[in-house]
Fold Histidine--tRNA ligase.
Amino acid sequence: MPISGFPEWLPPQRMIEQRVLDRVRTTFELYGFAPLETRSVEPLDTLLSKGETSKEVYLLHRLQGGTDEEDQLGLHFDLTVPFARFVVENAGKLQFPFRRYQIQKVWRGERPQEGRYREFLQADIDVVNRDNLPFHYDTEMPLVIGDALGGLPIPRVRIQINNRKVCEGFYRGLGLSDTAQVLRVVDKLDKIGPDKVTEQLVATAGATRSQADACVELASISAEDASFADAVRKLGITDPLLDEGLDELVRVVEAAREHAPGLLVADLKIARGLDYYTGTVYETLLTGYERFGSICSGGRYDNLASSGNDRFPGVGISIGVSRMLGILFGRQALEVSRKVPTCVLVALPQEEQRAACDRTAAALRRRGIATEVAPAAAKFGKQIQYADRRGIPYVWFPGEPDTVKDIRSGEQVEADATTWQPPAADLHPAVTGA
Amino acid sequence: MPISGFPEWLPPQRMIEQRVLDRVRTTFELYGFAPLETRSVEPLDTLLSKGETSKEVYLLHRLQGGTDEEDQLGLHFDLTVPFARFVVENAGKLQFPFRRYQIQKVWRGERPQEGRYREFLQADIDVVNRDNLPFHYDTEMPLVIGDALGGLPIPRVRIQINNRKVCEGFYRGLGLSDTAQVLRVVDKLDKIGPDKVTEQLVATAGATRSQADACVELASISAEDASFADAVRKLGITDPLLDEGLDELVRVVEAAREHAPGLLVADLKIARGLDYYTGTVYETLLTGYERFGSICSGGRYDNLASSGNDRFPGVGISIGVSRMLGILFGRQALEVSRKVPTCVLVALPQEEQRAACDRTAAALRRRGIATEVAPAAAKFGKQIQYADRRGIPYVWFPGEPDTVKDIRSGEQVEADATTWQPPAADLHPAVTGA
């Protein structure tokens, strides 16, 4: 029986997912990110070390575990916390700045809902450095994502960015001291609306009515260019951290305008919950599917990884692959041209000819053409049906000479297994937007 | 800290692993296997449904789990049991015979040792059918594996095969009734030697001394051709199941001799523990690393998947990717030509030129050349050092005109980012045997 929150795709959907992952991975590598996988488990104290977490952790215990049970282990709930642990643990063996990508399952024991799973696939890129990480990496992250997702037959993505320093500096400049609580309340803006946010800021964050209004006003600012900074300054609040944050945010927006116009928008309501971010934060909406929330998020974290006096600041972003595909699959928004990788089915006239048919298949495979031999000798009509049900485009008939039939058009031609080539478009299953 | 049994590869090793997985996956697809992933968890009763299991299961529970806890879930310990469950659950949506491959992590809470992990990666292929599965699929499995692994820079593999029907028929023909116990004892042959096996057969399986000797004699038979069948028949035991098993085993051996000479050996001591196999069984040794045991195993299972009156017999084989690579990494038997995917580092003379350098990098990436821009403006010597430490072969110098330097040979030439192409051998990191 299906288990709520643990999605399983049928093979055609998995073929689409693989195509997405291939594109993502190839793009990450084009930007010089090295591959990494970390173990699926971490000690519970590593998972909880970043203070209060809203992520529900799955703990492991062995069915026949004795009293010698090791430290409590839990499944990781993201790829950033394990990555930070890995960097500290292996700092002596890595070259800094260290650029890595990581595509793995993560687990969260939360209530499942559409596009929210308990087991799901994430695709992360991060750059970390020892001591200090140059800011230009903050501008690079969204460009890599734009490049990776832009090459896929999915709706256009729009990356929304903000900077924690802008919010914290602004709140501080306003005279509010519990900036974490302000952020926590402002983060609910889309869910509960501005009136309730104002109310809660007054009730829980020590804000006056006019301070609360200013916070809501800040959060309403959004622009595709550096004009957002003027809008913030018009609010009349000054603070050195605010200035620093605005300068950083302007740099990211301007770099994106040059290299990928239309990809990015500065949106000052983006807060990214209570995660470990210290500066730039990213969220990403899929055009037409905005109500499902962010499908790709991340940010700058200056204090996540450290060991003694060594500090490893980083910046990263994570594509929620399962979430994105779950949403698109739910609306039949992606299609694949066949249900199997197979391009050619070799028909089997009689069981005695199997060895010869296997040789034909081997010759086709040697040239990169995915080929199956029919499961049993049968009338050709039945073999064509086998191919048709799977969307296999070609059936190969042994004979003197061999022939190959495009079962979509019905066209049948003489062919030699050592030279025949299908059109490039038929070689692999094609993934398209529906 | 490292956790025993949960291996983590450094990026160069992960690059090697990915190259192996790419080859394996491409080969599986060339044979028409469709991709599948199943969830990592199964209900405990599914995991334990195949009777006594020696696999130690990891159970999950939520850190903040309440009293509404769902059925007990455990991490899967192989990919065959989840696959069988998936087939039964989705039979109405699949086309049979159903060929799928599945490359995923599995978990076993056993004592770790070299090449034996608690978390490890498996790459499986299986074919299942409704009601009956033609035997020729048993002959296909080892050929696919030979093709997949044969294209990698690893030691030659040798697939050992046997057939449960041969063993059970032989034991029955000998007059032994507890054939499962006989198999269990014979399975220890390599570990404890023939004398102890004989002893234990007498002590625990109700065998006379001469029956026990015959069992050990059967297990000693091995041949690369059909001659093993004559050797078995010379032992003078007759039984219909034995005959059926011998005929099947001969078919697999002969098909391999035709399509992949030297790949396969019939070895009648192969038992595959107490798993769910009912006929053909496979194990695979890596030449020179035989003492580490099988790196690729599987077999025919006629009764694993069923639902009411529906039966889904199958045959499959599973590459122990982590096990194989762990052994080879432990002996530095595999190398990769650089530590990052990057082919070109664009040097940055001054920070003000970053936008221009980013454009150069973008032009190279558009043509599939993995490129990074230097992290900071620095003297060229320092930038060459950055490339050298990572094994990046080329450094690009902006100028009038631009030049590109092969830092291995020192050769530097004029170049245009929209046309320059590295030699094909440098485009991607090369994986070689050491």
In short: The two ends of chain A are 29 Å apart (CA to CA). Residues 11-335 of chain A form a domain with the BirA Bifunctional Protein; domain 2 fold (CATH 3.30.930.10). Chain A has a mean pLDDT of 94.
